C-alpha cells in the first residue's frame, strides 16, 4: 500500500489563545495530505476540475488523541483506505515529527461529480487513469 507523508509546522494563526491547534485546522492539514498524496501518484485535482468535474467530501471522521501545539511539527500520513470504482476513502494519521505521539486519526470519503450539475460519475469510466492509479496505490 502506498503512503505519503506531508510535513506541516504548526503556525501561530492555527492555534487558540492557549497555543493549541484549533480542531478545524486538522481538516485543512488532511486536505494538504490528500492533495500531495494524489500528486505523488501522478494525479492532480486541478486536472479533474479543468475537465469540468470536482470531488466533494461526502463524509469526515476524526478522532482526536492529543492536541498539537504552536511550534510543533506535524506529519500527515495519507493513503487510500478503500475504493470501489465510484467512492474513495482516504485514511490519515497526524503525528509529531518524531513519530512518537499520535495526535489525530481520520478519514474522508469522496466521489467525483460534474461541476455544472453535481451529478455523480464513475471514476472507473470517466477517469480511467485515476482508477488505475488508485488500484495501484492500494496494492
UniProtKB/TrEMBL annotation:
Q: Which UniProt keywords apply?
A: Hydrolase
Q: One Pfam family for this entry, by name?
A: 4HBT_2
Q: Kindly give the CDD domains that the UniProt entry links to this protein.
A: 4HBT
Family, per the entry?
Belongs to the 4-hydroxybenzoyl-CoA thioesterase family.
Among NCBIfam families, the record links this protein to: YbgC/FadM family acyl-CoA thioesterase
Under the heading PANTHER family, the entry gives: 4-HYDROXYBENZOYL-COA THIOESTERASE FAMILY MEMBER, NOVEL THIOESTERASE SUPERFAMILY DOMAIN AND SAPOSIN A-TYPE DOMAIN CONTAINING PROTEIN (0610012H03RIK)
The protein in question is named Uncharacterized protein
Origin species: Listeria booriae
> Could you read off the lineage of the organism from its UniProt record?
Bacteria, Bacillati, Bacillota, Bacilli, Bacillales
